[in-house]
Amino acid sequence: MIRKLTKDDQELLMALLRKEPALNLFIIGDVENFGFEQDFMDLWGEIDPADGRIKAVLLRFYRSYLPYADGPFDVEGFAEIIRKDNDIHMISGASEVVKAFDGEINFKQVKQLFFAELKEMNNKISESFSSAEPIKKATVQDVEAICALTDTIEEFESSRNGSRTSLRKTLESNTGRTYYIEREDKVIVTASTSAENSMSAMIVGVATHQAFREQSLASRVMAQLCADLLHEGKSLCLFYDNPHAGVIYKRLGFQDIGSWTIVNM
Description:
Elements lengths: L1 E3 L5 H8 L7 H10 L6 E7 L6 E8 L2 E6 L5 H9 L6 E5 H5 L9 E10 L4 H5 L8 E2 L5 H8 L12 H11 L4 E6 L2 E9 L5 E9 L8 H15 L3 E6 L2 H10 L2 E10 L1
Parallel strand pairs: 4-5, 10-11
Antiparallel strand pairs: 1-2, 2-3, 3-4, 5-12, 6-11, 6-12, 7-8, 8-9, 9-10
Organism: Paenibacillus odorifer
InterPro entries: Acyl_CoA_acyltransferase (IPR016181), GNAT_acetyltra_YdfB-like (IPR027365), GNAT_dom (IPR000182)
Protein name: N-acetyltransferase domain-containing protein
């Protein structure tokens, strides 16, 4: 049986989501930050009639949908909910879950990313960094300086227009943090988190100025950022589609745990 979830279901929902806190950081974060009574967000759960547990969940966040299940689930039932939405923009989630909707929903464009998780740092790599400029934690006053760097990075072009607003909102809401190194009053390397919640966080926005690459600066900032979050008891995850970047992350201790699929409607 599929039904709308309410705050009375939060404990049962978290019992499902905490099985894979990295994969579920978006749903966990949205529930912790916004609850169940928002017009931009809905949650449906498939209830196991045998024991009453929630075996699968579907999140709508604005125009995007994110399904999760830890086993077989009612694909047709969730697909019927999605098909009723005439304003849907995207479906995303663990590839094996999203793939189950193939044939039920027409996809226009499919993008697949590697999904990696960090539970334990490779201390050898962090010990290899020589001490130099201090690594700083950003405040809202640093937004312009950080975005002045990311504006120069080709990979950030698609998100450039809203980058300042997004970063400022993340820092103000404490749903993410940004670390950086500067030289001559200019930010030369940065790394951030987003979707932080009580269990997990996602690494995003890793960038190094073109003139300062191949100096392990991004790895150094990443190592500090990850160490601080692990110390807080959070698991870390990230998406990547560049094998070269994947090598860097794996040196820190990240391990591939699957793939993430984004489909546009």
